[in-house]
Write a structure and sequence with these properties.
This is Acyltransferase. This protein is an alpha/beta fold. The chain is built from twelve helices and eleven strands. The protein has one domain. It is globular, with a radius of gyration of 20 Å.
């Protein structure tokens, strides 16, 4: 295979962009297990006190992730995230205002491989979330598994990530003064197995948990579609019915995380690697769907709101697809 190496005269700004994305990819794929190994390793060295003191802090701080986390604005505004934004580039597109007196549940679609659009738009200020939606604070939900890793839990909380369980999201939406936007990648880990260029499938047809959650708290629903999310990585063919898909789904059911076999480019060459392609991601935040609070919603309430949400998401996709290179005959598919 011929390797297409990057030219030696790449501008310094582009090198910084690549470095920023490399840090992010490393953090997503390897930092959590590395933190666990470091924590255990220190216990058997003369620096054992570091792990003991952290374990004490961890015990005291155990409930923080489920109580709004610990977002650090300074870290969210660091220049490194602007370099990451410009690598693709990533843009946040506003179609309607969000009332800061109200709480919202933003359904993010599609999940993609590494949710690059969700992280950049809602965990950093690189695309100007707080300026586009003044008075709003965003928190992205993430699998609770990642909050069980020492050191790593504090790192992801600093970006506004909180566990994707009912307790954590409820804490944010119980604030009557409003101003909280809980962002949920509705398709979750299973949807990542379908993430490949040109695919517009979202796992939503049987996803009603976030609908029930919004009804119970009276939080308005906001459909959000991230054009280009599936374009930044290729994935080994794993269509349903293949042995690879069977193994991936079995592992996902056991571990709670999916293991897509993805690839794209490298750091110093463009032929292979785990770095994403430089392809634009445009995350379009749709119009809010007003939700009346019902502490005990009926099955009919869930079905009606769920269908309305799917209709609004499909309409959002159709209204904006031609702006972002989607073919006219391509439509959103619900799985």
């Amino acid at each position: 295979m011929k390797i297409d190496f990057a030219p030696s005269d790449v501008p310094l700004a582009r090198r910084f962009q690549t470095a920023a994305v490399l840090i992010w990819v490393f953090s997503f794929l390897a930092l959590a297990p590395l933190c666990i190994v470091l924590f255990l390793f220190l216990l058997f060295t003369r620096f054992w006190l570091i792990s003991v003191l952290y374990a004490t802090w961890w015990f005291i701080d155990w409930d923080t992730p489920s109580r709004g986390g610990r977002k650090v604005p300074f870290l969210c505004e660091m220049r490194v995230w602007e370099y990451m934004r410009d690598y693709f580039p990533i843009k946040l597109v506003k179609t309607a205002d969000l009332d800061p007196r109200q709480n919202y549940v933003l359904g993010f679609h599609p999940h993609g491989i590494l949710v690059a659009g969700a992280f950049t738009n809602f965990c950093t200020e690189a695309t100007g979330f707080s300026k586009l939606f003044p008075g709003m604070k965003s928190n992205l939900l993430m699998l609770p598994l990642w909050f069980r890793s020492p050191f790593f839990r504090d790192y992801i909380m600093s970006a506004g990530l909180v566990p994707s369980d009912k307790e954590s999201a409820s804490y944010l939406l119980q604030h009557k003064e409003g101003g909280n936007a809980v962002v949920i990648a509705v398709g979750g880990a299973p949807e990542a197995l379908d993430a490949r260029p040109g695919d517009y499938t979202v796992h939503l047809a049987n996803k009603k948990g976030f609908i029930k959650f919004a009804l119970e708290h009276g939080a308005h629903l906001v459909p959000t579609y991230s054009f280009g999310e599936n374009e930044v990585f290729d994935q080994v063919e794993n269509h349903r019915g293949t042995w690879l898909r069977y193994i991936q789904e079995r592992l996902q059911s056991i571990m709670g995380i999916s293991l897509p076999l993805f690839h794209a480019r490298g750091v110093f060459q463009y032929s292979f690697g785990l770095m994403p392609y430089r392809k634009p991601i445009n995350t379009v935040v749709g119009r809010p769907i007003k939700v009346e609070k019902k502490e005990k919603p009926t099955a009919e309430d869930l079905d009606n709101l769920h269908q309305l949400y799917m209709d609004e998401l499909a309409q959002l996709f159709e209204e904006h697809k031609q702006n972002y290179g989607v073919l006219e005959d391509s439509h959103l598919m619900f799985q």
